[in-house]
Design a protein that fits this description.
Blueprint: H1 6-16, E1 20-29, E2 39-42, E3 47-48, H2 54-69, E4 74-81, E5 93-101, E6 106-111, H3 115-124, E7 129-135, H4 154-160, E8 164-168, H5 173-176, E9 184-187, H6 192-202, E10 210-213, H7 217-229, H8 234-237, E11 240-241, H9 254-269, H10 276-282
Length: 301
């Protein structure tokens, strides 16, 4: 989307989790280039809309970026006469409000683009997250060439959100090494062996604090046993959370599972204490009566 005004820029910055400053002329007197209430948005490398141009705007943008560089949210009002000091001879004066919005960007990688992922991504894309959405099936994110009936909505979903990047890689494990420190991982693929390969690769990355996988408790226990037999430490194995999701939320439809997973992620983003059930999952204590379905039909229970 081509941004043409400050409120479109603000919306995109919020969606992408970018830090920005709203510059507002809150009062004016005499002859001024723009009236009170005029706004623009400034980021570290871009500016959107205008408060009138000239030296006033140049000074305002410089001030905004100096405030951004401090990395702290704040509000500041500056009174500025439009005199020869700014190279403007309007003879008026303005008060400029700077509202600094600092975003601590968080990253999430979702592996798999089936039905559950297609229900999940639109929910999580409304949060201040950068989402890498990865699938190993060629053409899955291409509406023109895809032959997968499951992927009918995936291209449109990926296109609809500025903070979602759709990635095709026939070896999705390669994408784990490209994730920034602190990224969270959700594994929802169509293939159990691929799930295991992703888990095995992910738990060896010290910089990935959360690795969640869809499936039943039976699947989770099999993976734990397999990892232990291959010599992984209990500390590494405990990085895996499975089944992912708030298991107090019932239902196995894709949207119900997506809401359940979203609850877990929102809890993580807000550093909230996990529920009793989440704590049990984290420590590898199986929940016998409650499971979440795998992305594929026929998941063993």
């Amino acid at each position: 989307m081509r941004i043409t005004n400050w409120y479109q820029a603000l919306s995109q910055c919020e969606q992408q989790g970018r830090a920005y400053v709203i510059i507002t002329l809150i009062a004016s007197a005499g002859s001024v280039p723009r009236d009170a209430g005029t706004k623009m948005v400034v980021t570290g490398d871009s500016q959107y809309d205008t408060i009138g141009g000239g030296h006033l705007e140049h000074e305002a943008v410089t001030t905004a970026r100096d405030l951004l560089a401090k990395g702290q949210a704040c509000q500041q009002v500056v009174s500025t006469p439009l005199a020869s000091k700014l190279g403007q001879c309007c003879g008026g004066a303005v008060k400029v409000l700077y509202e600094v919005m600092v975003k601590h960007q968080q990253h999430l990688a979702i592996f798999g683009a089936g039905h559950v992922a297609q229900a999940l991504v639109p929910i999580l894309a409304q949060l201040p997250l950068q989402i890498r959405w990865i699938d190993s099936r060629e053409g899955f994110f291409d509406a023109q060439t895809s032959v997968h009936t499951q992927s009918l909505n995936a291209p449109a979903i990926a296109e609809a959100y500025d903070n979602v990047t759709a990635i095709y890689n026939d070896d999705p494990c390669e994408e784990l090494a490209l994730l920034p420190d602190g990224a969270k991982v959700i594994i929802l693929t169509h293939n159990h062996q691929l799930d295991y390969s992703l888990i095995e690769a992910a738990i060896t990355h010290a910089s990935l604090p959360f690795i969640g996988m869809i499936g039943s408790t039976t699947k989770a226990k099999r993976f734990v046993t397999r990892l232990a037999h291959r010599g992984y430490s209990q500390q590494d194995i405990d990085k895996m959370t499975s089944p992912i999701g708030d298991l107090s939320i019932p239902g196995k439809r894709p949207i119900e599972v997506a809401v359940s997973i979203s609850a877990d992620i929102i809890r993580l983003l807000n550093n909230a204490e996990p529920s009793t059930q989440s704590s049990q999952k984290q420590k590898g204590v199986p929940l016998q009566q409650q499971t979440l379905p795998a992305e594929t039909i026929g998941e063993p229970k």
